[in-house]
Amino acid sequence: MNKPAISISLSSYGADLVRQRGQGSFIEVLAAAGATHIEWREELLTGEVPAQLAEVTRAEGLESVYSSPMELWLAGQSKPNLELIRALQRAEAFGAKWLKVSLGYFTDNRDLQSLARLLDASPVQLLVENDQTLHGGRIEPFQRFFADVEQHKLPIKMTFDIGNWHWQDQSAASAARLLGRHVGYVHCKAVTRRADGKLVAIPPTASDLQQWEQLLRHMAQGVMRAAEYPLQGDDLVQLTREHVVALAHLGQSQLESAHV
After folding, report:
1. What is the pLDDT of residues 226-238, one digit of tens each?
2. Closest of 144, 150, 139 to residue 172, by C-alpha
3. What does the alpha-carbon distance between residue 230 and residue 227 come to, in Å, rounded to a whole number?
4. Residue 29, CA distances (Å) to 36, 51, 108 in order
5. Cβ neighbour number for residue 150 with a 10 Å cutoff
6. Which domains does the chain have, with CATH numbers?
7. Each residue of 171-193: pLDDT tens digit?
8. How many Cβ atoms from other residues are within 10 Å of residue 56's Cβ?
9. How far is the C-alpha of 244 from the C-alpha of 256, rounded, in Å?
10. Residue 260: CB partners within 8 Å, gap ≥ 6?
11. SS3 state of residue 63
């Protein structure tokens, strides 16, 4: 049985360590741990040379997702963020097949035809993520956005960040029901509230994994999923391998029952 694609967001290893070691140093870790994809983080780049990383990544049998913190739509502008052009170019330079960005300020006067022209000029597929903001972290703007995406037949999928819905007190279960068919990439992270009231990402418990299993039932079987929560320990290969296995198992019982 085919196992789903498993990505690791390099932010999982901690910003300080990643900047200190360089993102390329994690390629072998992910390959040895059985991951299929690596998610480059633009905000953690230091002196990396994209072409070199793309070559080594391919040699290790990994595919790439490029994550940019940019927002697709800026407040008060009908055309997509011009930074998208450069982000698509950077993603391509890293050998990435996907570019992940945030939705931003999506309103009804947005120019989807301009977005279509930008995407037509690039081989990179766009993934639009729910973030932690009021304007980009609620369900309703994504419903409107993907209704327009369908109408214009744009090659855009959603990055469904399970944990980010907590920041705007949105139901991940409702979001999965309403948006699941648009999802091409799932960011997995559990969330807890610290004593100071701040929400933070944490590794999943058994109950979190059970909840994620239910969410994935609303999405395409075998949808690509990523760890985006702290992966910190002495043996990063073994630790990463354990989480790759756990994420790969999500949805497999459903798949197995369908083939009985």
Report:
1. 999 999 999 999 9
2. 139
3. 9
4. 11, 19, 44
5. 12
6. 6-258 (3.20.20.150)
7. 999 999 999 999 999 999 999 99
8. 15
9. 19
10. none
11. strand
